[in-house]
Design a protein that fits this description.
434 Repressor (Amino-terminal Domain); Cro/C1-type_HTH; 49% helix; Transcriptional regulator
């Protein structure tokens, strides 16, 4: 964590929201004495993304902005400026902001996926198709993909949290339209399954109805022993902090884990899925 930059008056800042956001990003980094590459090494994401954000070529995603606010210890300054720059398109909810902060602080994470691979495990091609289905296209799509793929760095950095993801078989039975991109996603899952801090398990469809049949959930265990839960659908996310609610979801998660394949069996299952995807003859 760099020394907190000296706060400055903002009278010299542009009043145009997008430019003001870019100026603040650059000022904070320069005040910390770091280069773009040094910032990228400590926060994650590619240094070129931070350069584009400082030049006003892209706004980045919510994930990136929350990480920068936390890194610079600026409260919600950057998020607020980011929302202003987005204008009417701003859809960044307070609970999601809190969730991203908790995710970056967690010492361990437990996840159950109903229909899609979690963002921490998504490859570029997977991110692109998920965003495209949501209606994002063109230059904005390229920018959002670039901004979001850096989220994977959380599991790859030194001191990365322990991460367990139970994937419903339905996740693996719902391929991308691009066979090459889908193959890359499956290969990445196999590679991540070999990491000491990552545990992947598959929940077979054959187990039938279970306690999380319609709920995508993430548990975040913090350094002080607290655990928070975050449930999500395609249209809504909810951060659950009350012990009773977290405990109820935890019991449901434990019952699902009891039904899932072992880590070894799950890796083999994903490998079998990979064999079913045709190879690119030009590769």
């Amino acid at each position: 964590m760099p020394l907190r930059p000296q706060r400055r008056t903002v009278t010299s800042r542009s009043q145009e929201p997008r430019q003001r956001f870019a100026e603040e990003l650059k000022a904070l980094r320069e005040a910390s004495g770091e280069s773009l590459r040094q910032l990228a090494e400590k926060v994650g994401w590619d240094f070129s993304l931070f350069g584009k954000m400082e030049n006003g070529h892209t706004l980045g995603s919510a994930d990136v902005v929350v990480a920068l606010d936390q890194y610079y210890d600026t409260g919600t300054l950057l998020v607020t400026l980011w929302e202003m720059a987005l204008g009417e398109k701003a859809e960044f909810k307070e609970q999601y902001r809190e969730y991203m902060e908790l995710e970056s602080e967690a010492v361990s994470l437990w996840h159950f996926a109903v229909s899609t691979v979690h963002g921490l495990l998504q490859t570029d091609g997977y991110v692109r198709e998920v965003l495209a289905v949501g209606g994002i296209a063109g230059e904005e799509l390229d920018q959002q993909v670039e901004a979001r793929v850096g989220r994977r760095a959380l599991l790859l950095r030194e001191g990365a949290p322990m991460f367990r993801s139970i994937l419903s078989e339905g996740v693996l039975r719902t391929p991308l339209r691009d066979a090459k991109a889908w193959r890359e996603q499956l290969v990445y899952l196999v590679e991540m399954a070999d990491r000491s801090n990552v545990a992947l398990q598959v929940l077979p469809l054959g187990v039938g109805i279970h306690s999380l049949v319609s709920t995508d959930v993430m548990f975040l265990r913090l350094g002080d022993g607290r655990t928070r839960a975050y449930t999500e659908t395609a249209y809504h996310g909810e951060l659950i902090e009350e012990n009773e609610g977290v405990e109820r979801l935890q019991r449901a998660y434990d019952s699902v884990r009891d039904l899932a394949l072992s880590r070894t069996e799950s890796r083999k299952f994903i490998g079998q899925m990979l064999e079913e995807v045709p190879c690119d003859p030009s590769a």
